[in-house]
Every structure is written in C-alpha cells, then in structure tokens.
Q: What sequence folds into this?
C-alpha cells in the first residue's frame, strides 16, 4: 500500500541540523521497508542514475547496496506480509511486475487492462497485498487521461484478474487490508464525497459492502492500517470493530502546518506525523498511541520538497521519506532519519583546495578514519570528486553506522576562461640579422597572467628567432583562454642597427617638477622607447627602468639598450597665498613644516609659519619643501604705504574675514600669560573655546565644526580681562 501526500517544500542540500539525517540524491517514486532484510526498497523512475530500477538501500549507512533493472518507470509498491513478493506498478506501461525476494528477480509481469476508450489503459494508483495470500493483490486502478482518475478496484490472482470490480469515477484511491477480517478498505481522496469504502473479497472479485462519509475531509489524504484501526495523515483514527467504521479519536498535529505522512510505529506505543510548511524545514511530531498526546517534536532545517511517503525502518524513530521538487515534479531525494548518536564526537577536518577551471575534476580527501565516509553530494569513500561549483563537507560513520558531526564546509569553485588576448607588434614583424621584434599583449580585466606559445610569460615578449607566436591569458586559478590570433615573425637579410646607448641629461634621481631627459642616438628613422614613446628623447615622470630600440631605413629594429633606472620623487602641491586687509600674508596649506616665505626670490629669515607680517614692499611667495623636493607659490606683489612700515593702529584684527576652516586673530601685543578665546553666536550662546597662547601676536582659530553664519570672537588675558572682540563671518 502506498502512503503519500503531495505537500510543497523546498529541498536544499545544505548542512542538516541533526547529525542523524542522511539525504541520498536518488530520484524515487516509492519506498518500503522489509524487516527480514533490514533494507529499504526504492522504485526509481526512468532517467538519472539508477533509473527504471528497484534499488536496495542500507538505511544504517545510507548507501545503495544494489539496483535491479525493472523498466517502465517503476512507481507505487506493496509487499506481501510474508515478504515473499514486492508488487510494483509501472507509470509508463499499464502493467504491474512482481519481484521475488528469494530469487532477486522479476517473477511475474501482468497487464492491468483498459477501462474503455474514454479512460484508456489502466495504471496502478495503489496496491495492497491480501494478508496470508502473497499471490493475491488488490489494485486501485486509474486513468492517465481523465480526472477524476479512478477506474475501479480489481483483484488479481498471480496476475489474473477476477471478473468483479468496483465502479469507475468514484471509489477507492488509497487501499488498506484488515488482516483480522480480510476486509479491504478504500478511501476516496479525489472528490468531496471523501467516502470510506468497506469491501469484501470473494472468488468473483471485490464488492462494496458500505460507504461511510464524514470521516475525512482532505484531498489527497491516505490511510494506513495498524492494530485493528485505520489512521490518516491528518490524524483521524478510525475504529473498525463495528459494522460501520467510526471516528475513534483524533490526533492533533500542528494544523498551522501541512501533514505530509503518518506512520504507526510497529515496535512502540507511538504514532509519527511528518508536517511541513512552505519554508525549507520539516516538523516530525510524535504522539502517544493511546492518549493521543504530543510526546515529542523535532524540526529538521534545510529539508524540503513535496514530501512523498513516510515509513518506519527499524523502530526508535528511524524513519524514511521521499522529497519531490515543486518545479520539475521529480522525486529527487530519499531522506533517512537514523535517530542514533555517533561515538565520533569531534567533527572531522576537510582541507581547503584551490579552485579549478570548468571542465576540470577536483578531488577532496577526507582524513584517515576507521569508518566509512559519506559526502554531502552523495558520494562515499575517502575521496570525493567535484566538477561543478558546490559547497561540500563529509561525515564519518562509526561501527554502528551512526554519522559523526559534519566537517567544515569547503566551497569548490570553477572559473570560466578569460577572453583571448590581442598581440600588438612594436614596429614591423620583420626580424633583421642580430635584431629583435617586440610583441606585447595587454592584460584584460580579470586576467592575472599571460602564457606565450614558446613558454614565456609576461606582457612583453622579446623575439629573436623567426616563427609563429601566440599568447593565452590566465585566470587567478591558472585557467587558460583560447589562443590569440597568431603573429608571424619572419627573417630578412638585413643587418639590425647596433644596440643603442641612452644619454641622461640630468640626474637619474630627481623631483617630478624638475625632470631629466633621456636621449637616444641620432641618425635613425624611428625610435621605440619601453614606455611607448617614439621620439628621440623622453622626459620620464615615473620611476622605473627605461630602454630604447632604434630602427633604420630598412625597418630593422635593434636590440633594446641597457635600461636606465630612473627614480622620481613627488614634489609637494603648489600653495596659494593671500593678503589680509591688515598687511598679513597667509596660506591655506595643510602643512605646518617645511615652509619658507620668500621676498623677491630670497628667503625671509625666520619666516617659517603659515602667516607672515608684511614689513616692506616687494614680491612675496611661499616655498614648501618635502624630502628635498620643493614647490613655490605664485608671486604676490605687496606695496606698503608710508616709509615702508606697516600701518598698525594697535587694535586687534581677524583675517581672512569671511573665513572657512581657519581664521587668524591678530592682537595688538602678545600676552605674557595664556588666556582664553571664546566664540559665541550672535545671541550670546557659547559655541567654542580654545587657549590663547602666550607670546604670540597671531592666534590660529579653528572653525571646522561651525556652520556658516555670523559669530562673535572674544579674547581674554590671563587675568580674565577681555582684550579683543571681533565679528566673524563663517562661509
């Protein structure tokens, strides 16, 4: 008998929270368990690995023992109570095959006939084997052409159909035998009648004794027999002791979830309900069989898909079910809940590996452990291979088959090859006697290196032998692109110019605002410098090695000159200088060292700050020096009225005004003791305060934190006497 409900969940192959969960990447249509062999049996549809087969699964290790080819895309299954036969309904052929457990082979194959032209051939919707009669099977027939799909219930004796069947259209989609009475029960789960049919089996076939409505109310629901009762996925418990089936009790699984399956434990006093939401997790609820009270609930993260079937395979919470993705309607995974704790408590270690290129096969190795190794991508053994990008980890089974905690995850990456590069020829591809042809391939974004056809690397190839040259670009992981378009370097019978010598006009180390010149020898038709310049001289502005090739009238290039090592030091930025309205020069430079004011080109003694008081008429500038490199501002000519003396009226002054980040307060005379400078709003609110430095006529004010507006600036001496007050405009 099949037990299945179609519920939406998304299956992801990430790490499962519980360490006793095994997920097999095996497309499956149905799963049953045989206690006599201790194995799960799975029917697999056509296509994929192990398709069209009956596969035997070791649930302890979660491995495939073997698969028997069946054909016809095997689907629903049922096993006889003596475990002699497994009946398998095919989904692409209207037949049932019977697999013999003793012979380990298909022993019988029989047709299910046709329900007429409208319905077409019959297929097995559900199968139940009569207790005590392994050769007798009850089959719920269905059409693949109509809806409702039901085409009656038929009885088969060793593949021969008994003549009497139930009616088509409305009947029994889900079947269950009562071994105590030999009666067959069937649930209509595809129309709102939701009738439970009580049927008797005789030599002529099957007859409906009664139909009870009102016990079930869910489309696609399934029933399962256990200990004289029927159980449904939504928790109904149906008593069968009276003439008419009655609702004997109701389990209360979480109805905010969707019930995906019910399993009555054969070895304990519990009933399992597997529930799911539209998120990638499952909830397994365990109820007391007698009190119907919830005894336990477990959540399984990163499991999902349409859940199909729930079977017990060994008691004590050992369960198995199939998941089906909701996009392609394919049963992709077999999930085994193992409910055991491994003696291996420490997670193993998986070493990181470098990535590969698409088309490569990468190997990951587990640490040496005594137990079998199981990888997250379904592979087993000490080594796993990967050919596509994926996150992978592994677990180790102990002597009981219980899995260790998962190892750390490793993401295996594969890179696409980069675009093929392009070769540029410096000058002509003609190679003269004793000369050189230079080939260059610029690196594209995403490329991390180049490999030339002669085995050389680098962006530039010096060719001294004729031949065909191409180049490939490399990714970070060393993935090679396609070859570039080839360049043919051919030999001509002309001598190349002698190797040139570079003349340096100036120094090989200089500041960037005073560069030297590099000269090639005169008398050649063309010049090719290593920086791409083609003049007879270059003015280098960056540090590096510079060389040159010369070309004669015949187009022959010389060998490159010996390189000249140039070091260029940066000069400081050129400052701007300003004149205040009270004969002070100041600068907006952010530096406060390396400053020197100049008057008529010569240094003003002691003038090394950002502010200079003008005492005589002349041309002023500011020089900044950093690491022996200097920059000089533009000249500013200042005329002093009177006898070349500044007009000082003894009052304080603010400049510049308006100001932005910094302003300067000029006092009538320096204070001998430190005081305070306070900045207030026009309403009198104190907004800032700083120390008035002793011994300085010019005090620097920091205005960065003030918004634009008008302010009052007050200065107080060491005795608290106000000595200056000015208004300031902040820009």
A:
């Amino acid at each position: 008998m099949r037990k299945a409900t179609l519920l939406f969940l998304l299956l992801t192959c990430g790490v499962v929270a519980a360490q006793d969960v095994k997920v097999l990447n095996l497309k499956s249509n149905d799963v049953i368990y045989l206690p006599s062999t201790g194995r799960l049996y799975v029917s697999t549809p056509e296509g994929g690995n192990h398709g069209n087969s009956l596969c035997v699964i070791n649930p302890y290790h979660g491995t495939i023992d073997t698969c028997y080819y069946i054909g016809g895309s095997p689907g629903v299954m049922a096993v006889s109570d003596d475990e002699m036969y497994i009946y398998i309904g095919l989904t692409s052929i209207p037949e049932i095959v019977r697999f013999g457990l003793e012979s380990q082979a298909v022993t019988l194959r029989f047709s299910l006939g046709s329900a007429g032209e409208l319905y077409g051939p019959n297929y097995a919707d559900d199968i139940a084997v009569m207790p005590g009669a392994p050769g007798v099977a009850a089959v719920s027939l269905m059409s693949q052409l109509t809806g409702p799909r039901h085409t009656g219930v038929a009885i088969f004796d060793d593949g021969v159909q008994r003549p009497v069947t139930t009616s088509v259209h409305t009947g029994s989609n889900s079947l269950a035998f009562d071994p105590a009475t030999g009666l067959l029960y069937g649930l209509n789960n595809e129309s709102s009648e939701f009738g439970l049919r009580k049927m008797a089996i005789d030599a002529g076939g099957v007859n409906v004794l009664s139909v009870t409505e009102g016990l079930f109310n869910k489309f696609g629901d399934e029933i399962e027999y256990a200990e004289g009762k029927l159980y449904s996925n939504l928790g109904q418990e149906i008593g069968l002791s009276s003439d008419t089936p009655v609702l004997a009790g109701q389990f209360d699984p979480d109805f905010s979830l969707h019930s995906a399956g019910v399993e009555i434990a054969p070895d304990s006093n519990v009933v399992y309900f597997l529930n799911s939401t539209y998120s990638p997790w499952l909830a397994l609820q365990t109820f007391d069989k007698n009190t119907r009270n919830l005894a336990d609930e477990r959540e399984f993260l990163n499991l999902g898909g349409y859940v199909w079937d729930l079977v017990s395979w060994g008691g004590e919470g050992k369960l198995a079910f199939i998941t089906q993705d909701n996009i392609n309607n394919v049963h992709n995974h077999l999930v085994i809940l193992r409910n055991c704790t491994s003696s291996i408590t420490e997670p193993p270690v998986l070493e990181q590996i470098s990535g590969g290129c698409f088309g490569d096969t990468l190997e990951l190795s587990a640490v040496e452990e005594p137990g079998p190794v199981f990888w997250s991508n379904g592979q087993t053994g000490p080594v796993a291979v990967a050919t596509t990008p994926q996150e992978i980890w592994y677990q180790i089974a102990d002597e009981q088959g219980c899995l260790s905690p998962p190892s750390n995850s490793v993401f295996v990456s594969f890179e696409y090859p980069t675009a093929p590069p392009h070769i540029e020829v410096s000058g002509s591809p003609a190679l003269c006697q004793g000369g050189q042809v230079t080939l260059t391939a610029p690196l594209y974004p995403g490329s991390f290196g180049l490999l030339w056809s002669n085995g050389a690397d680098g962006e530039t190839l010096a060719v001294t032998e004729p031949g065909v040259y191409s180049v490939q670009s490399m990714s970070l992981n060393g993935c090679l692109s396609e070859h570039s378009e080839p360049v043919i370097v051919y030999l001509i019978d002309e001598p190349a110019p002698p190797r040139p010598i570079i003349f340096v006009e100036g120094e090989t180390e200089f500041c960037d605002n005073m560069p030297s010149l590099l000269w090639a020898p005169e008398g050649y038709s063309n010049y090719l410098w290593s920086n791409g310049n083609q003049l007879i001289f270059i003015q280098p502005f960056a540090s590096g090695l510079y060389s040159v090739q010369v070309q004669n009238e015949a187009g022959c290039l010389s060998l490159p000159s010996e390189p000249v090592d140039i070091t260029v030091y940066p000069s400081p930025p050129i400052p701007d200088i300003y004149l205040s309205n009270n004969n002070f020069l100041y600068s907006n430079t952010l530096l406060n060292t390396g400053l020197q004011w100049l008057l008529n080109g010569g240094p003003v003694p002691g003038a090394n700050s950002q502010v200079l008081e003008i005492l005589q008429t002349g041309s002023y500038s500011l020089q900044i020096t950093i690491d022996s490199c200097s920059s000089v501002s533009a000249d500013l000519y200042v005329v002093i009225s009177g006898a070349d003396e500044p007009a000082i009226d003894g009052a304080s002054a603010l400049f510049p005004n308006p100001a932005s980040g910094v302003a300067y307060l000029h006092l009538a005379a320096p204070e001998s003791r430190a005081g305070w400078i306070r900045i207030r709003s026009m309403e009198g609110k104190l907004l800032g305060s700083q120390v008035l430095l002793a011994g300085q006529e010019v005090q620097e004010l920091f205005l960065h934190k003030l918004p634009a507006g008008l302010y009052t600036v007050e200065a107080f001496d060491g005795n608290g006497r106000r000595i200056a007050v000015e208004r300031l405009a902040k820009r």
User: Anything to note?
Assistant: Residues 583 and 614 are 5 Å apart (CA to CA). Confidence is low (pLDDT under 50) at residues 1-19, 256-260, 642-650.
